[in-house]
Amino acid sequence: MARGITESDVHTAADALVTAGERPTVERIRAHLGTGSPNTVTRWLETWWQGLGDRLQTQQGRLAVPDAPEAVATLAGEWWGLALEHASVAALEALAADRSALQAEQQALQQERDGFAAKVTALRGQVDAAAQAERLASTQATELQRLASRLEGQVEEMARQRDAALARAGEAESARQAADLRIQTLQDAASAERESLAQHVRAVEDRAHAEIDRARQEAKELEARLATVTKEHAAITKSLVDTAEHAKSVAADAVREAGAQLARANALEAQLAKLQDLPAALEAAWRRNETKPAARKSSARKAKAVRHG
């Protein structure tokens, strides 16, 4: 609401409007002054209308022409009265219109006041809610500050733990590198040892294969020798049988010699049976019997000599 509008300001504005040929109204006066409450302007405008008659009479006295003819003065007075009456009627009509406009404005202002009151009530509720929110925010801020202090302590502790963990990680990395180097060294040594062992295994396998081949060759030779000995034994047996048949008439020495030969032949057969299961024993027996063919040949020659004798 505008302030500082005086009665003189309103009267001066109304006079200026009348001088300009306009009817003074509340809105025109407010527009002329650029400010002012409608109620204040209406109140001061009413006093302007109330004093208008007195000002006009004063003005009439000022305009009276001395020594004017009576008819002129009477006519001037009638004109002036008509002017006052017309001005009074126009003023009353304008005042009624202004009052209607004022009532409408007052109603609008009352509605605005009601709206403002509702807004004030809502704003008060908002203010109360804001105050409650402020108190809650203050409490939360205090709690957050406490939590922030705790978090700062935890952050510092975590920073110390992180530094310790980084130090341990560095030590672990150094240990890991040393372990990697040791493992690489052991792997290299193991690889070399594995290669050496593989070479040794291959050499042993080669020697074993060679020994097996040699043993197989020796077994074949032993089998050949055994076949030869068997043939020789068959031949000797046949010769001894022939000798025994033809030597029945020979002296007792020849009979005993034949019996000895037969015993040796039986012993040789037993040895041969053992040699078939034991190649090594056979080879040994064969070696032991290498010297016996000469004796057998000598006995055969003796038996032959006996037959021919």
Count of DSSP helices? 8
Parts with pLDDT < 50 across at least 5 consecutive residues:
none
Order of helices and strands: HHHHHHHH
Q: Alpha-carbon distance between the termini? A: 184 Å
Domain KfrA N-terminal DNA-binding: 6-126
Keywords: Coiled coil, DNA-binding
GO molecular function: DNA binding
Coiled coil: 141-168, 205-239
Any key phrases for this structure?
about 300 residues, mainly alpha, 8 helices
SSE topology:
Layout: H1 7-19, H2 26-33, H3 38-50, H4 52-63, H5 70-246, H6 252-277, H7 279-289, H8 292-308
Helix pairs in contact: 1-2, 1-3, 2-3, 3-5, 5-6, 5-7, 5-8, 6-7
Please explain how this structure is put together.
- There is one protein chain.
- By secondary structure, the protein is mostly helical.
- It folds into 2 domains: 7-136, no CATH class; 217-308.
- The protein has helices spanning 7-19, 26-33, 38-50, 52-63, 70-246, 252-277, 279-289, 292-308.
- The radius of gyration is 79 Å and the shape is rod-shaped.
- Residues 6-126 form the KfrA N-terminal DNA-binding domain.
Task: Give a brief outline of the structure.
The chain is an all-alpha fold. It contains 8 helices and no strands.
